[in-house]
Amino acid sequence: MGDVYPRSGPAPSEVPDILHFSSVDIDQARSALNRFYYPVAVGIPEGADGFGLGMEVIQLGPLTVGQLSYASPMILTVAEIDAYHVSMPTTGRMQTRHAGHVVLADPSTAAVFGPGNPVYTVHDGNSAELAIKIERDALEQELAGMLGRPVEGPIDLPPAMDVSTGPSHSWSRLVRLLRDELEHPESLIYQPLIAEQLRSSVLSGLLMSLPHRYHEELTGPATAGPPRAIRRVADAIHDEPERPFTVADLAAIAGMSVRSLQEGFRRHLGCAPMAYLQQERLMRAHETLRRSDPLRVTVAAVAHRWGFAHLGRFASAYRSRFGVPPSETLRSAG
User: Fold this and answer.
1) Where are the alpha helices (DSSP H) in 224-323?
2) pLDDT grade, residue 4 (50/70/90)?
3) What is the mean pLDDT of residues 231-249?
4) How far is CA 123 from the centre of its chain?
5) Helix (H) or strand (E) holding 122
6) 30: which residues sit within 8 A by CB, 6+ positions away?
7) CA 246 from centre of chain
8) Which domains does the chain have, with CATH numbers?
9) Alpha-carbon span 167 to 260, nearest angstrom
């Protein structure tokens, strides 16, 4: 078995940290930004009137996603950023300066920052952005897990990102989904199994969306992993299907890259590793429904327990596997 590269993220008992904040006081705004992002200097451009900052933020371990709303023009300065960061305007524009690059970001172009340099941003009044912070170790460990070997950081991400098309547009929709869940107290983001999967999807999706020196290795041809390593992963899935496995977690168990794991599963088991995990979870959900009291247990609770974030898709996959809807299995148990 190869080296296992640890992955940062919420512990099973950890819940997301949520902030809803609005203030016209610069010191309060600075304190909120420091808490979730970085030590930052907050200023107002010459000639601008008033001040107002709104924040809606969710923090999933090393991933922070927030919508920042600027009621008035604002200048933010960070002496040295210590993470990977994407600023994605949703309304209005912002100008950024980082590592010798000047980027004019708008709803079609995001600005991307890496660790080790200062960041200077100027925001329009009546503008808003999605601010995505990923701790350095977390993104580099995610990449190591995907490759199946150590990496030397920092990862050389480009200074700008076109989010209007292609994989980057898909990634931006995933981030928006996370932000939208802030408005729902009963959201599945409060389920650790789902939160971990979403966090990993944002990190791996960013690595797949942008060019960097490891990108070709991530997307190029891969050799299939050997049967013994694939069986080790299958056994881990059978033993603990309730664990919040990501494909990179499974690749670490096998001691190989994500692509080698995927090729190995297709060759030896006829499906992708996450599809194999889903089938195991469907079987466990089926067994749980058959043994449960329909007066005490709901289909949604069973689906969430076994890692299904979307109830409609769970019901469809369940019916395809077992020929009946999950509600019928639960009713027959009573």
Assistant:
1) 227-239, 247-254, 258-269, 273-291, 299-305, 311-322
2) very low
3) 90
4) 25
5) strand 119-123
6) 40, 41, 42
7) 11
8) 17-188 (2.60.120.10), 276-333 (1.10.10.60)
9) 22
